[in-house]
Amino acid sequence: MKRIFSFLLALLMLVQLTNAQNVQKDPQAEKVLDAMSKKYQAMNAFKVGFTQTMESPSAKVKESINGDITVSGNKYRLAVAGQEIINNGAIIWTIMKKEGEVTISDNDPDEQEMTPNQIYNLYKKGYRYVYAGEEKEGGDAVHVIDLTPNDRENQVFKVRLHISKKDNSLKSWKMFRKNGNRYTYKINKFTANPPVDAGTFAFDKNKYKGLKVVDLR
Question: Which of 16, 21, 11 is nearest to 133 (CA)?
Fold first, then answer.
């Protein structure tokens, strides 16, 4: 499950490497990224329905799964591939109904390469970025921004964001790994400021009776 949400975005999503080596902050890219970040930070919460597609050219595999995530500040609730992850900012519950188990762990952002509540601010720390042009996605014009990590040991060597020219919304993002695998996240449905309360980001044991609890704290 770590693989799923470490690559999510944010879902949840983020160079042309030959150009990015000498570019710390491309002003054109930064302007687009700042507008996107401002849009999402102005919301109390948001909910995203997404499709994650994993492609492995070497194994000739292409698989897609659907999921949804609700984000508010540093909290999120993710449902994907038959599992749920609830993060209240301090504690993470990973619920695996098929396995009949729920694991509890401390939230440590430093251990996570990317988390769903970070995708819109990813570029602000540890990444270089460059404006890579414009494309069309679903009939809409999008800015293409490429991010590359400063850490050369990072197994993700590029994140490509597609940001709407019309309203600064993030349409999709693609992550490129050194092993050749590619992960694409496409936003299918977006809801701004959905109703959330304390229960949204809390684990209610009464709703998951019969599950074995494994406390890793």
Answer: 16
CA 212 and chain centroid, separation: 28
Stated pTM of the model: 0.81
Q: What is the DSSP letter of 133?
A: E
Sequence-ordered list of residues with C-beta below 8 angstroms from that of 10, at least 6 positions apart, any chain: 48, 69, 71, 76, 114, 115, 116, 117, 118, 119, 120, 185
Higher pLDDT, 22 or 181: 181
Query: The tokens 């991010």 sit on which residue?
Result: 147
Q: Three-state DSSP class for 97?
A: coil
**Does residue 196 have a pLDDT over 90?**
yes
Give the mean model confidence (pLDDT) for residues 171-198: 92
* Confidence check: pLDDT of 19 > 70: no
3-state SS track over 147-171: EEECCCCCCEEEEEEEEECCCCCEE
pLDDT at position 187: 92
**What does each C-alpha distance from 12 to 112, 142, 157, 172 come to in angstroms?**
14, 19, 19, 10
2-212 is classed CATH 2.50.20.10: yes
User: Structural domain boundaries of the chain?
Assistant: 2-212
In angstroms, how far is the first alpha carbon of the chain from the final one? 17
At residue 155, the pLDDT reads 85
